[in-house]
Protein 1
Amino acid sequence: MRLNAKTAIVTGGARGIGRAAAELFAEEGAAVWAADLSLDEPFEHPGITFVPHDVTSQESWASLVERVLDESGRVDVLVNNAGLVGSYEGVETIDLDDWRRIIDVNLNGVFLGTRAVIPVMRAGGGGSIVHTSSMWGIVGAVGVAAYTASKAAVRSLSKNVALTYAADGIRSNSVHPGIIETPMVLAQDAALTQGIVDATPLRRLGTAREIAYGMLYLASDEANYVTGAELVIDGGSTAQ
């Protein structure tokens, strides 16, 4: 029970990596608030509460945190996981509306969520914030301009939060997945996905559960001396 008696918010919690994290955290004793725009398949674990939530809305964040405080009394962990690829276009060809939407979800959503929980964590004596970046937040990729820019910004923002709020007992770390078997990845062009897998040293898709285990470590007290770090879980892609 590595998260026993802790309260966690997981965004993008209805599917993919977010759902895997919500389920694993609940198995490890946390009261989990899985926040997402919609829910396709109900959670079976009684420790998970689903909340409709738009990460790009400051009002939605205020409502979510208020509800969690009212019912759980604290926020110990925030997993800023909600995100999308949105477009594989490069700088010259990406539609401006796509650019703005991707930045809004992937970066502004992380900013707003972090901003919303910091006062609560400070009042509670600290906490852990885990941000989902990407291997493409560390290394470049052809095209995918908005996604790579947003994920690199999340990596840097995570370090900024770590340094700014260390004295408050708030830890901030980023997770950098490679190509992972999620609904988002399975819905994209199969040849595109296979090309990324072929370039991955372990030659397979990662699983959402494998990413969730990394998040669990960073959320737990086992990582009390870990802040401002990058946990890369990418099958060896960025080692090349």
Protein 2
Amino acid sequence: MAGEEINEDYPVEIHEYLSAFENSIGAVDEMLKTMMSVSRNELLQKLDPLEQAKVDLVSAYTLNSMFWVYLATQGVNAKEHPVKQELERIRVYMNRVKEITDKKKAGKLDRGAASRFVKNALWEPKPRNASKVANKGKSKS
């Protein structure tokens, strides 16, 4: 950044923000090139259905987000554009996929083992009648 020439068309205060934005755009461009280098069918064949859904959702979200940014650069209020509803719809599906993934990771409860564990861990007092009967039988002999 120190060797960069500052353009007089915008305020100097936002130069760092614009440089960071330019770097981000370059990173997005590199990721898109990488993603586009592999055919979609080839990529999806290697993945299970849940992973395929994740790839599709991330792709749709990225595309719509980029369109949102484009609208903003054109002076359009993206908050009132249908792209906002589409982004929200995709976000709902992303949450559903996350719930499914979390359920798969969650431990399963073995009810039989849990009930045996609890049953053995609880203290059970001996019935009083059984001890008295045992003592009476011993004293009479």
Protein 3
Amino acid sequence: MNDIIFLKGMRFYGYHGALSAENEIGQIFVVDVTLKVDLAEAGQSDDVTDTVHYGEVFEDVKEIVEGPPCNLIEHLAERIAKRINSHYNRVMETKVRITKENPPIPGHYDGVGIEIVRENR
């Protein structure tokens, strides 16, 4: 089964980071979430209760990223994956990708970040 729901390029302002400047000034975090979900039932029924409502997932991610700061975006990603996997029993696997486009490190790049994949057990 290869069905997925994705939310790509969600942008939120937060205060996460290991450096004090990141906690004081904050920055934009770009979050992508991919959910492995069996969409066959929703495809047949045309009923939102037979799928995962991505508007609700967006609000969950927003609440976490705009909420209390974390030192590491790895921890932030874990919080997102845990929330999704604990709230949506239809989700079999959650992938979370977080990108900092302008972290306080010198150099030229499009962004730095992490990606985790967590199964819903």
Protein 4
Amino acid sequence: MPTIVVDVMPKAELLDPQGKAVTGALSRLGVEDFSAVRIGKRFELTVEGEVTDEVLAEARRIADEILSNSVIEDVVGVEVVE
């Protein structure tokens, strides 16, 4: 069955306290290669049958209206994986 993956991230201009905590933990562990971490959400929507343009449009609508908070988050990806 095909799956539609929706990725949601905090808006770039907002502080990401979880990402900041992970960045600090990496530094304490001696990992210095990464200057910042941002943490988001991934949703996997399993589709019964074929992914048509209408199904993909519905997934985008759901991503914008239900899966993300448009005040503080951006939907950064909606893609089909087999």
